[in-house]
Amino acid sequence: MRKKIRVGILFGGKSVEHEASLLSAKNVVDAMDKEKYMPVMMAIDRNGVWLVDGQRVALVPEGRGELVFVDTGKKEHVDVVFPVLHGTFGEDGTIQGALKIADVPFVGSGVLASSVGMDKDVAKRLLRDARIPIARFEVYTSSDAIQFSILAKQFGLPLFVKPANAGSSVGVHKVRTEEEFVSAIANAFQYDKKILIEECIVGREIECAVLGNEHPKASFPGEIIPSVDFYTYQAKYFDESLVELHAPAQLSQEETNLVQDLALRTYKTLCCEGLSRIDFFLNENGELLVNEINTIPGFTSASMYPLLWLKSGIAYPALIDQLIMFAFERFEKEQKLHYTPPLTSANS
Questions:
Q1: Looking at the predicted structure, is the pLDDT value of residue 21 above 70?
Q2: pLDDT by residue (tens digit) across 76-102?
Q3: CATH code of domain 202-314
């Protein structure tokens, strides 16, 4: 009998998106081919403690996936890790750095792309430098003077206030008045030290899933039609009645091609690997703008990423297969890299 691949499902976390991670992890496990994979549930509680079977574990540096139970010294191992973590301390490069130090293959982007993709400010600057169209924005820290009248004149109303580092619309506010603006800024600074003020784009919300390492491919685009003011955290993960998902989106072939092209350009510009979902606005003038990238998109029943691949011809179990394959592929290539200078002879 072929030995099963032990897949560490890393989920939970300290993020405000903890509950969404639990839903995503369940769906990933349910979709796995149990004849091929043995899931090892690696929970991270709200305090950041790692647990397997309710017992504290530590990931061993350079341990190739070795886990040690803190209280008993018992050892466990995983062949590959599948992070199903959303938001801060999950898709921002921190977990990815820990997994790199542990020298274990893992699904998804590495440290750089994860960190950049999470930081809307840095991501937008890189996209702008690559001449990828984005909405106009300004960035502020808590020590800056932020004047509503100037920003309202610059961007018009309504406008958006967002934490630079947060996902799933957490801390995001659509602002129409100065009173709302002051409240939104205070709330956004609860989630990050840096916030974005961004123009409001009126248009359709289009999403595209990307899969792969060096030669990624893009799915058919989908469309989000929220019944609420904008696509909130609640609508994304917990109340499917608040949103309609159209997959594929009703777009012309030219529009479809443009979405897929910009999705791949965004993916490569931000150095992504494994998977990402790229979100767009298609405005009233037919202009396509990149809104943001999500390097660990949701895998819940209301999530667009697996749905888009299903509509593009890749069923959920096959999608899991491919993501794990890409993790091993990257790991094998990285193992061939040299991290020390070559030895030289005494006469050289």
A1: yes
A2: 999 999 999 998 899 999 999 999 999
A3: 3.30.470.20
Q: What is the mean pLDDT of residues 279-285?
A: 95
Q: Residues 189, 207: contact at Cβ < 8 Å?
A: no
pLDDT digit string, tens, across residues 48-65 = 999 999 999 999 999 999
Beta carbons within 10 angstroms of residue 76's beta carbon: 17
Beta bridge partners of 178: none
**Level-2 CATH architecture, domain 136-199:** 2-Layer Sandwich (3.30)
Bridge partners (DSSP) listed for residue 81: 8, 106
Decide: residue 245, CB within 10 A, 0-12 exposed, 13-18 middle, 19+ buried.
Answer: middle
Beta-carbon contacts of 334 under 8 Å, excluding residues fewer than 6 positions away, are none
Sorting pLDDT into bands at 50, 70 and 90, what band is 235? low
- Runs of H (alpha helix) within the chain: 18-31, 94-102, 111-118, 120-129, 148-155, 178-188, 233-237, 253-269, 304-311, 316-335
Candidates 3.40.50.20, 3.40.50.2300, 3.40.1440.60, 3.40.190.10; CATH matching 5-107: 3.40.50.20
Write the CB contacts of 229 (distance below 8 Å, at least 6 apart in sequence): 174
State how far the Cα of 309 lies from the Cα of 247, in Å rounded to an integer: 10
209: closest CA among 196, 224, 199, 219?
Answer: 219
